[in-house]
Amino acid sequence: MASPKSSTRPNQENQEPKFQDFFPTMAGKLGGEGLIEELCKGFELLMDKDKGVITFESLRRNASTVLGLGDLTDDDVRCMINEGDCDRDGALNQMEFCVLMFRLSPELMEASRCVVTEVIEEEFSDYSHRH
C-alpha cells in the first residue's frame, strides 16, 4: 500500500506527482515507427498473454514486477485502465495503450496538435484555391 507521502500519490505538499516526459526524446531518437515499436513492446510486457490485452489483473501484477510501481492501490490500477479504455470493455488493447501513452505526454500532444493544425490549414488553403 502507498503511504500518504508516497512520491506516486499527490498530497497537500505535492499536488501533482512529478515525472520527466521522456517520450519526446524517444520520438526524436527512434522516429515515429521506432517509437510505436517500443510502445508495442511495452504493451506486450504489461498484457495478459492469454487475452492479448492489458487487464486489471495483468497491470496489477506487472506494475510491480515490470514497472517497479509496487505501491499502487487497486483504485490506482483501475484509474489507469479507465483512463485509456475507450471502448469501455474493462481492458486496454494495443491501440488504446498507444493512444494513452501519447495523451500522457504533454509535449507529444502539443506537437501532434501543431501537425494537425498545419494539415487542416493546408487543406483549407488548397480547397479555397480550387473553388
UniProtKB/TrEMBL annotation:
The keyword Phosphoprotein does not apply. Pfam families: EF-hand_8 (PF13833). GO terms for molecular function: calcium ion binding. Residues 72-107 form the EF-hand domain. Residues 1-20 are annotated as: Disordered. Keywords: Calcium, Metal-binding. The keyword Cytoplasm does not apply. Residues 1-14 have a biased composition (Polar residues). This is EF-hand domain-containing protein.
